[in-house]
Amino acid sequence: MTDVLDRTTPIHPEQLTRSLLDVSVDGLMAFDRELRYIAWNAAMERISGLSEADVVGKRAFELFPFLVETGEERCYHQALAGETVDSVARPFFVIATQRRGFYDAHYAPLRDDVGRIVGGVAVVRDTTDRDLTEAKVREIEARFQNMADASPVLLWMSGTDGLCTFFNQTWLTFTGRALEDEWGVGWAEGVHFEDFQRCMDTYLAAFNARKVFEMEYRLMRADGEYRWILDRGTPRYLPDGTFAGYIGSCVDITERKVLEVELREAVRARDEFLSIASHELRTPLTSLQLQLEGLLRTLDRKPEQALSSGRIASSATMAKTQSLRLVTLVNQLLDVSRIAAGRLVLEYEDDVDIAAVAEEVVDRYRALAAQSGTVLTLRSPAKGVMRGAWDRSRVDQVLTNLVSNAVKYGAGKPVEIDMVTTGDLVRIRVTDQGIGIAPEARARLFQRFERAKETRNYGGLGLGLWISREIAHAMGGSIELEQSAPGAGATFAVDLPARPPAHVARSPISEESQEHAFTSE
Amino acid sequence: MTQDERTVLLVDDDRAIRDTIGQLLEEEGYRVAVAANGLEALEHLREGDGGRPSLIVLDLMMPVMDGWQFREAQLRDPRLASIPVVVLTADGNTRQKGTRMGAAAALQKPIALERLLAVVDACRA
Question: Which of B13, B26, B37, B109 to mutate to test the interface with A (most CBs of A within 10 A)?
Answer without folding.
Answer: B109
